[in-house]
Design goal:
With 509 residues, the protein is α/β, with parallel strands linked by helices. It has three domains: 190 residues, NAD(P)-binding Rossmann-like Domain (Rossmann fold, 3-Layer(aba) Sandwich); 253 residues, N-(1-d-carboxylethyl)-l-norvaline Dehydrogenase, domain 2 (Orthogonal Bundle), CATH 1.10.1040.10; 41 residues, Up-down Bundle (Single alpha-helices involved in coiled-coils or other helix-helix interfaces), CATH 1.20.5. The protein contains 19 helices and 13 strands. Helix 8 packs across helix 12 and helix 8 runs antiparallel to helix 14. Bound molecules: adenosine-2'-monophosphate (2AM). Adenosine-2'-monophosphate binds next to helix 4.
Length: 509
């Protein structure tokens, strides 16, 4: 039984994320009470960390944990997403959690679950959902944190969240390097801010992950095209990514790509590890959730969905090996200039990335209407500048864009991004055309370009499509020479039948 009520915060679930978050909080001088279902795990954790700046209190029951934490209690829950979150929430409520207390679900919960839980538990406590990005290292030394829940409750969590989050240099907009244990980063702009009511934090975390999928796919396609068209070895590609990391593409994912490509196989120093890694990508589901949500809301986030499908296609390894024996592609040898192609791939990557982020922000804009949130997009891009997997110099440009124009309809229309697309599109088209000519799969580059060209087209072929719908299903159409909303139908084929004006949906007729 904990003897004093002294802990600033409680934490349930001591798997690696829970342990690292607890240590990060304690590093910043907060006292943390910890509980784990399997008591020995908690005992081992306490024994392994006797000397943290804030101190850890080990609790053997949920009741002990509640007794140890100062009121209003803040209890972080880091258990497996799904039913376990409800199990733990109910245990806490059963053990005497009070109405002012906060449960903060830091797992990868689906935002719809968080909306439900916030409602279901609103009589017993204040339920928060906070996205935590940056993996195990981020949790330990500075994650990007996306909290959603009751706006009044946020002020109780804010000092701790701001202390433990990654920090960004206010001058450069770049993440400050992760600190060593016991040397927390104190200065800089914290990568956390209140996101919105109920599931808003978990929703924005999901969009982060959806963007992460497409970011990774685009980098992989850039690697694949340069490797195949220029016959470059991984250690020749590594310095190209390292150089890109000094410019517009400066980001964590480009940085680790440069590292990965120069890594030799620990089993065979003559080969590169990347060539020994099987080309089948796994997934945990957040990219899929993002794509399903895009389909549900009718938002064209095609590049994000394409990145999910690219992983699905990669997973069909046995089928692909078999198909490769039967299905022919073109014979193609690139005979152009090496550096020119490398620059073109760079620009294709940058332009595609702009479209991918534009899609992610379009989704959040649509979700505002769907779930009654009000997002601060400059702040969201700001939170992602440090701590998380998609951290990048690029995000400062997005913060700038939404600071200039908070109501920006689409990121593509921001003057900076527009200029980049205008400058890079010729190279982008060259790369997509080369991929098609050479028969190299580059679905994300192609899909992003299709989005760009579709979005900037005042006229698309949907006139024919809608006419087809009216032809076989009497689904009606609008006319270019009539006000929007006026509906018409023809009994096709109809050389001499009149067009019928249809009542607008919802009208009294
Ligand atoms: P355990 O060590 O007892 O398995 C990740 O699975 C973390 O969530 C672990 O700390 C695990 O505790 C905890 N966890 C998973 N399901 C749980 C549940 N239903 N109740 C409490 N903790 C749970």
């Amino acid at each position: 039984m904990a003897e004093q009520t002294q802990a600033d915060i409680g934490l349930i679930g001591l798997a690696v994320m829970g342990e690292n978050l607890a240590l990060n909080i304690a590093d910043h001088g907060f006292n943390v009470a910890v509980y784990n279902r399997t008591t020995q795990v908690m005992k081992n954790f306490i024994a392994a960390n006797p000397d943290t700046p804030g101190g850890l209190i080990g609790c053997e029951s949920v009741a002990d944990l509640l007794a140890a934490v100062k009121k209003p209690r803040k209890i972080i829950v880091l258990v497996k997403a799904g039913a376990a979150v409800d199990t733990v929430a109910q245990q806490l409520i059963g053990a005497g959690l009070e109405k002012d207390d906060l449960i903060i679900d830091c797992g990868n919960s689906q935002w719809t679950d968080t909306i439900r839980r916030e409602k279901d538990y609103s009589r017993q406590c204040r339920f928060f959902g906070s996205g935590v990005s940056g993996g195990e290292v981020g949790a330990r030394f500075g994650p990007s944190l996306m909290p959603g829940g009751d706006a009044q409750a946020w002020r109780h969590l804010e000092p701790i969240w701001k202390a433990i989050a990654a920090k960004v240099d206010p001058g450069t907009g770049k993440a400050i390097e992760t600190a060593k244990p016991g040397q927390p980063v104190k200065d800089g702009i914290p990568c956390t801010a209140y996101i919105g009511e109920n599931g808003a934090g978990h929703y924005v975390k999901m969009i982060h992950n959806g963007i992460e999928y497409i970011d990774m796919q685009l980098i992989s396609e850039a690697y694949f095209l340069m490797r195949n068209l220029l016959s470059l070895q991984p250690d020749e590609l590594s310095p190209i990514f390292a150089r890109w990391n000094q410019g517009d593409l400066d980001s964590y994912l480009i940085e680790i790509t440069a590292d990965i490509l120069k890594q030799r196989d620990p089993r065979d120093a003559d080969s590169f590890l990347v060539d020994r890694v099987l080309d089948t990508a796994q997934q945990k589901g957040t990219g899929k959730w993002t794509s399903i949500n895009a389909l549900d809301m009718g938002i064209p986030a095609n590049a994000i969905a394409e990145a999910v499908f690219a992983r699905c296609l990669s997973a069909l390894k046995d089928e692909r090996i078999e198909a490769a024996k039967h299905l022919a592609g073109p014979r193609y040898t690139y005979s152009g200039d090496r550096d020119e192609l490398i620059n073109a791939v760079h620009d294709a990557l940058y332009c595609s990335k702009i479209c991918a982020y534009a899609q992610g922000f379009q989704l959040m804009r649509a979700a505002e209407g769907e779930y009654h949130w009000k997002f601060d997009f400059a702040s969201i891009a700001g939170i992602w500048r440090g701590g998380c997997i998609i951290r990048a110099r690029f995000l400062q440009k997005i913060t700038d864009a939404y600071t200039r124009a908070p109501g920006l309809v689409n990121l593509l229309l921001d003057p900076y991004f527009k200029e980049q697309l205008h400058k890079g599109q010729s190279h982008w088209r060259t790369v997509v055309a080369l991929a098609a000519q050479a028969g190299l799969a580059a679905p994300a580059f192609m899909s992003a370009l299709a989005y760009y060209d579709g979005y900037r087209s005042a006229q698309l072929p949907a006139n024919l499509l809608q006419a087809q719908r009216d032809y076989f299903g009497a689904h009606t159409y609008e006319r270019t020479d009539e006000p929007r909303g006026a509906l018409f139908h023809l009994d096709w084929p109809a050389p001499d039948r009149p067009e019928i004006a249809m009542p607008a949906p919802g009208s009294a007729v």
